[in-house]
């Protein structure tokens, strides 16, 4: 049974996002609480990635506000970095560290007990056992994608933000990813993700933010069924 809505964790009000003066998505009003999942859907170029980057403080909003646990979003703050795990690209790796070393550094930096065992479990879960001791530069694009996801799962977080997490994953890994995200959601993590995968959205999301040329609006999955089917 999915968690009912609780106190709001991430809140955006009257938000306009974009590059330059022209917003690509506006206005956005959303509330995401612990133990709930919100999917962001829309065509390529509609502003999904720009919206996610603004919600985690990497881009300044053109208008409106974003708060996390009642405080303005600041991706430089220690509290924000402790509370939020995000995968927005596949290139946020230390070039001199192997995949395993990167995961260990992330886990230990967030106070994970038995970090070696937790890292080994994530390496196995994401099918990286044979390449875990290679440098990121020696991995394929799909392996780098899985390593980036493993880095988000290897640490605790109140909010997990993913931009098209299904990208470059095979069908079996997508199914396992949906199960993992659902498990995190049910355990109390707030999950925010952009996706073109209808099955992932339908399985994980409690609400859907539809981004298109006309408006940005939050709908129940049943209300957004037509748009999800178009993904």
TrEMBL record:
The keyword Nucleotide-binding applies. Signal peptide: none annotated. PROSITE patterns: ABC_TRANSPORTER_1, ABC_TRANSPORTER_2. Keywords: ATP-binding, Nucleotide-binding, Transport. It comes from the Bacteria. Residues 10-231 form the ABC transporter domain. GO terms for molecular function: ATP binding; ATP hydrolysis activity. Pfam families: ABC_tran (PF00005). PANTHER family: ABC TRANSPORTER ATP-BINDING PROTEIN ALBC-RELATED. This is ABC transporter. It comes from Geodermatophilus africanus.
